[in-house]
Design a protein that fits this description.
4 copies of one chain form a homotetramer. The first copy, chain A, is an alpha+beta fold. Chain A has helices at about 5-15, 15-20, 50-70, and strands spanning about 25-30, 35-40, 75-85, 90-100, 105-115, 120-135. Chain A has a 6-stranded antiparallel sheet. In chain A, a hairpin with a 3-residue loop joins strand 4 (about 90-100) and strand 5 (about 105-115). Chains in contact: A-B, A-C, A-D, B-C, B-D, C-D. The interface between B and D is small, with 10 and 10 residues.
Chain lengths: ~140, ~140, ~140, ~140
């Protein structure tokens, strides 16, 4: 619990899919975590925007890392919901997630996702979900 | 509307992110569409399962192609929700999606996601979401 | 677990809010449960349709009773999502829910909601959610 | 658009179900709306907490009134998701909702729900959803 940014980054680096997408954690605390994904061409869909699957990946992972900052690393994403509100256009995707509620067995988190274009952040999606402590880890 | 599997595959191939993940459409009709993703090592997380972001990608894209088989290609995913129920372990991820309701401006779809291991399908996630017709396309 | 329809009805009758709405369970099994709500005038909104809150109530309760048929009565609704697809017009609302996945600590369920008008059922909403076993009840 | 609290209250009063539950709007602006529901005995479930259906009602209606403060009254709730995080115990339920994104055809809103006991607010649920402009109203 309350692991460091370095610990969290090691977990992220141990995820081959996160490496494939080039994701990085730039801040990590019980209050908020921030995950970045560079919007390279291979992460796009047919209209040149970031694919919804990329935005979903960032939401899912940011929600889970936010929970991890409070619950520790032995967790699993149970479920989440995402609303896309604008196309994700730009050079980077930023996901900021925070814990709304944390109990012994699960946390509920929210995430705001922004596309950064020419340094300007534009909200492109919002998410909300549940992260559960792995049952074997519940004392 | 009621486009062919070939048309739908062309759309999928025009999505760089879908190509990166190796996704393929194997069936496509107004009743059900089926999307496959081979679970290569680079799509995994730190425990060797498919990353949640991969399962989310498949859910998002399958929901949208299911809607497209009824609404036509000028659509956008509005929102969806996903429940992960088991780790996605195996050689392939299969997403089967169908339309629950279709109106003039949107469709609501459901998706079941299965991991295939040694030929056995195991349910690993379920999703539900809304796909909207692009406003400029509504007559 | 595998309680009878009579047991489930007793639980429903012990819910003052369900009595206020006139809800009834008409079938109850691990495969599917069915909850009815008569669409009296006091359950409507300003346009004469059933209020979304009534449809939500039915979805929430049906999802939970479906889980209860598998997990037993010591459960709590964790979360759900609902898509309204048509106005709920008619004399009765029917919610049919079933378990998609059940583990030791939770179940994921789906629910279809129909408005019945002149004996015709029309789909008006679909829901999906998680029901958790109360922690003190997990052996 | 930007209707007054009085207009919004008239809409609420025109909803028989909202009257049945005793709901009241206590503030109403494009920034945030606040809906109250007194937790009378008839709104409870078998354990003496507010029934999930009551919390859902409040979330659904608060999300919709929040959208209405920006989109005007010709709207309909498309979908939402709710996470229950604590039992709703106390004398009153407060739902505070705000608009995260508003376009021409829809708005995405969030809602926090609190149970008030002895004057203390405790977060009991969080919700997120989509409210659509009625198609006939889109110019």
């Amino acid at each position: 619990m309350n692991r460091s940014l370095e610990d969290a980054r090691r977990t992220l680096e141990a995820q081959p899919f996160s490496k494939l997408l080039g994701a990085d954690l730039v801040s990590y605390s019980p209050e908020e975590i921030e995950l970045h994904v560079p919007l390279t061409d291979q992460l796009k869909q047919q209209h040149g925007f970031a694919h919804g699957g990329v935005v979903s990946y960032a939401a899912d992972n940011a929600l889970t890392f936010a929970a991890g900052a409070v619950l520790g690393p032995a967790i699993v994403t149970s479920e989440y919901k995402i609303n896309y509100v604008r196309p994700a256009i730009g050079e980077r995707l930023i996901a900021r997630a925070s814990v709304v509620y944390a109990g012994k067995t699960q946390a509920v988190c929210r995430c705001d996702l922004f596309a950064v274009s020419d340094g300007q952040e534009v909200l492109c999606a919002v998410a909300q979900g549940t992260i559960a402590v792995l049952r074997s880890s519940i004392s």
